[in-house]
Amino acid sequence: MYAIVDVETTGGKYNEEGITEIAIYKYDGNEIVDHLISLVNPEKPIQPFVQKLTGINNAMLVNAPKFYELAKRIIEITNGCFLVAHNAEFDYRMIRNEFSRLGYDFYAQTIDTVRLAQKLLPNQEAYSLGKLVRSLGIPIADRHRASGDALATLKLFRYLLERDTEREILQSVIKSERTNELEPRIFDAIQKCPSAVGVFFFHDKNGQIIHAGKSSNIRKKVNQYFLGKEPWNNFLRENTYEVTYERTGSELIADLKLLEFLETTTLKYVHKPRKSQPASWSFKIEDQTIVHTISSRKQNQAAQYFSGASDANKYVRAHFSHLLNFKTQIVINDKIVFENEVVQSEEQDAKLAELEKANLHKRDILVVGQGRTYSERSFIRLKNNELLGYGFFDLNFQIANLDKIEKNTVPLIHAPARVLLIHRFLRRQKFAKTIDLPS
């Protein structure tokens, strides 16, 4: 059974959007057996460009039901169904977010008609819903309204089912249904896991941990472990009696907690990660020369850590090798590998500020990320490149209060390898939010 879904939203910041309209067609593979179509009062304004796109305005939603009034019906119509949508990740995320705000963990297996079409119809010029269905001769009405888009998605899905000669869709259904063949204790363990970010632990009949992991979707990852065909998967199926977990909200916190556990555990079956010394980068300014020192050995005042000296070298060359009004020198393990002459300019202040900001040894920062709930945010505290711990705060409270931060901080054991995870995250996530704390 399939639930073909489309939602329209208010637009706005990621994970802060609200649903303005929802359409669900329950489809048994032959015909529509049930449906739900409704406007939804999101209790927040719609972005102007979204109003133009969908034709839905704030006035239309004043008397529309709020999501909690539709929640029970949505659960009823989707129960036991695959959730099918065009760009399913978006629609599923929106529905899960709305349920999360109500304190309910909504879960469903999804089928994405975008990916399905890309696999079964590889030569299409475009895979957006409108362009794709028009190219296939599938009629579409009420474009950018939930009912029209959901109905077009249903017709597209039926079209793809008919052309699924290798039974890709049915195989995914059968694979999912294999979960029901697992022993009741395994099935129960999977069902108890949330579809949320965090760390998880497999326990044997004596309660001892035999495996640990982390995922952006705990339930999905645990399910994959139990359904795998390798000897390790067989071992887990035979020996797991319970799965415990901890929500972290932030994938970075999950990484840090898992790494700390793996590096400190003495448990028999849990494999320790290979120990390695991160490469460190530091710099000093002398007259009009900036000397960047990259070392495979430990430096007490490193600006940042890297996986290896070559990664550090690439980063420094890309960002600071031609610093305005300065001569630059890069030294790796006591050997000069790069040197240039003074670059003349009057804009050196901005570039120097950028260099100083990259020196995390001189900053006390919070790396802010997603929380465990919609109204919460997480933080990781890094002071002078020492990992102090992590915590959570409510969006309604100020985070810059040092006393509150320290009281809410859960300690983590400092190690360069863990600090490296944070540095790597900050370098890759250009829009990562950080807060500098007063010294």
- Count of β-strands: 18
Tally the helices: 15
Q: What CATH architecture label of the largest domain applies?
A: 2-Layer Sandwich
Q: Roughly how much helix do the residues carry, as a percent range?
A: 25-40%
Major sheet: size, sense and barrel closure?
A: 5 strands, mixed
Organism: Flavobacterium aurantiibacter
InterPro entries: DnaQ, GIY-YIG_endonuc, GIY-YIG_endonuc_sf, GIY-YIG_UvrC_Cho, Ribonucl_H, RNaseH-like_sf, RNaseH_sf
Pfam family, one: RNase_T
Protein name: GIY-YIG domain-containing protein
List keywords for this structure.
15 helices, RNaseH-like_sf, Nucleotidyltransferase, domain 5, 4 domains, 36% helix, 18 strands, 439 residues, GIY-YIG endonuclease, five-stranded mixed beta sheet, alpha+beta
Overview of the structural elements:
Residues 195-277 form the GIY-YIG domain. This is GIY-YIG domain-containing protein. DNA polymerase III is a complex, multichain enzyme responsible for most of the replicative synthesis in bacteria. The epsilon subunit contain the editing function and is a proofreading 3'-5' exonuclease. The strands form 4 sheets. The protein has a 5-stranded mixed β-sheet, with helices on both faces. The chain has 439 residues and is α+β, with helices and mostly antiparallel strands. The chain folds into 4 domains: 2-174, 2-Layer Sandwich (Nucleotidyltransferase, domain 5), CATH 3.30.420.10; 182-247, GIY-YIG endonuclease, CATH 3.40.1440; 279-358, no CATH class; 362-436, no CATH class. Helix 8 (184-192) runs antiparallel to helix 9. Helices cover 36% and strands 25% of the residues. The radius of gyration is 26 Å and the shape is globular. It is built from 15 helices and 18 strands. The protein has helices at residues 48-54, 67-78, 88-101, 113-120, 129-135, 146-162, 168-177, 184-192, 218-227, 231-239, 251-264, 309-320, 348-358, 402-408, 416-428; strands spanning 2-9, 19-27, 32-39, 82-85, 110-112, 198-203, 209-215, 242-247, 279-286, 289-295, 304-306, 327-332, 335-339, 364-370, 376-383, 386-394, 410-411, 433-436. The protein starts with a strand and ends with a strand.
